[in-house]
Amino acid sequence: MTEVLLTVGTRKxxxxxxxxxxxxTFDGPHFTAQAVYSIAIDTRRAATPxxxxxxxxxxxxxxxFHSDDLGASWTEPRQPAVKFPEFTGAxxxxxxxxxxxxxxxxxxVYAGTEPAALFRSEDDxxxxxxxxxxxxxxxxxxxxxxxxxxxxxTIVTDPxxxxxxxxxxxxAGVFRTRDGGASWAPANKGVSAVxxxxxxxxxGQCVHKVAQDAADPDRLYLQNHWGVYRSDxxxxxxxxxxxxxxxxxxxxxxxxxxxxxxxxxxxxTADSDRVPADNRCRVFRTEDAxxxxxxxxxxLPQEAHYGTVLRDALCTDxxxxxxxxFGNRNGEVYASADDGDSWQLLASHLPDVxxxxxxxxx
Length: 362
Hints:
Blueprint: E1 4-10, E2 13-20, E3 23-30, E4 35-42, E5 50-57, E6 61-67, E7 94-100, E8 109-114, E9 117-121, E10 129-130, H1 132-135, E11 151-158, E12 161-170, E13 173-177, E14 185-186, E15 207-212, E16 220-224, E17 228-231, E18 239-240, E19 249-255, E20 263-270, E21 273-276, E22 283-286, E23 294-296, E24 314-316, E25 324-327, E26 333-336, E27 344-347, E28 353-360
Antiparallel strand pairs: 1-2, 1-28, 2-3, 4-5, 5-6, 7-8, 8-9, 9-10, 11-12, 12-13, 13-14, 15-16, 16-17, 17-18, 19-20, 20-21, 20-22, 22-23, 24-25, 25-26, 26-27
């Protein structure tokens, strides 16, 4: 069976899981007492993948660490990897997202932060530079923090074009560049902002997560603060695909690594009642780009359940069949080795799970 690495970021450290010959083992925590909000597994390297971790120490502040030996040792740059230039008047509160670009941009890694900003690295995540045109976007003075702060939490790159990048900000919405970051435009047409006087603004949506389709880079899935959407043109226009879900509120969204039109969400009851919809532990899958949704429950708890899944706590790997994983605020981690058809509990009683990432090794 394929060997898989699973990384689990929690409120109090990082846990690493390995599946060998069908058996899972875990070690950790790494970064004891640090909140781990972001993880990336960079599989573009010829040998062992690089693991990048955004840690947040209550004493030392946020930092970005990396490991080239699957977590046996960790390196922290001598100078802060992500740091706001003095002219911004801002200081880094958190690294919400770490995202290696695809093979179209070797060595490039992006970081999304709070305050909401995009940083770019050209040395595999050793050092990052602020993408100034987004920071200086003319709408920026009107961006308003969401309940979790003003964070740039999603970064999507285009495997066909290294100049094309899409980001999502809470609560400013989706923005995209087609010229390598020199200019940025809002990309929110069709996404509703029910909490604003104008429910259809150019920007200001509370986007929680965006995932990219496996077969078509222009097809995107979006989980909003109320609303699940799909775009077939790279974010130019969005279509509501929430019909058939028990709730359209939620945080997480992920796409299958190979199957066109296949994506996963974890519905939450409401913004005012942040528990699983109907108090049931269910991942919902679409296999036709949102026309229909089916609950995936085999192996998941059948009794009343209250474990909320956060925006980066649902992911897939690139195995065949695909692995699907999620962690919740109950400290539980579940995995499926068959595209989501059945599940098993991998870990319980962990600290609050903030993010999960997985990759095939070898």
